[in-house]
């Protein structure tokens, strides 16, 4: 039930106002954060009864969520497969390959890499080769997703298409 899922998402977790890493936002707001284990338990509780649970990280695998843990440790606690997402722009090769190594080090299963294209890709010639280079180096599909903020319906359709591509491979 879609409305029930939205309600679960709306009531789950801690919301921080500042557009910063979880730890930085919590420090700025003088709030404490749950541990990675507590966050994972909350996700598992809210995901109970659903076939698929998608959990979005905050800024990358090595972003701190507290004094010790990162988003990567949260992913380990969750035990879900991972989809790495990066901007299809100059620098993404290093970012994605570094994230891949971080995931491998923690024995996380990376099911796909998604490169997003948007205004940041305009005039950036690296987007012509990023997916091919990553695809040759990594044993997971490398997909591109054109994000446009001009047309919400078109963006939703592209997101649905992307999810349809990813979901068959996301089962654990």
Cα-atom Rg, whole angstroms? 17 Å
Number of helices: 7
Strand arrangement in the largest pleated sheet = 1-2-3
Global outline? globular
Largest sheet: 3 strands, parallel
Mean pLDDT across every amino acid position: 84
Keywords:
single chain, 172 residues, mainly alpha, 3-stranded parallel sheet, 7 helices, 45% helix
What this model shows, in words?
The chain has 172 residues and is mainly α. The chain has helices spanning 2-11, 22-28, 36-47, 71-78, 92-105, 130-137, 152-170; strands at 82-87, 110-117, 142-146. The protein has a three-stranded parallel β-sheet, sandwiched between helices. β2, α6 and β3 form a beta-alpha-beta unit. α3 (36-47) crosses α4. It is globular, with a radius of gyration of 17 Å. The chain starts with a helix and ends with a helix.
Question: How are the SSEs placed, and which strands pair?
Answer:
Elements: H1 2-11, H2 22-28, H3 36-47, H4 71-78, E1 82-87, H5 92-105, E2 110-117, H6 130-137, E3 142-146, H7 152-170
Parallel strand pairs: 1-2, 2-3
Helix pairs in contact: 3-4
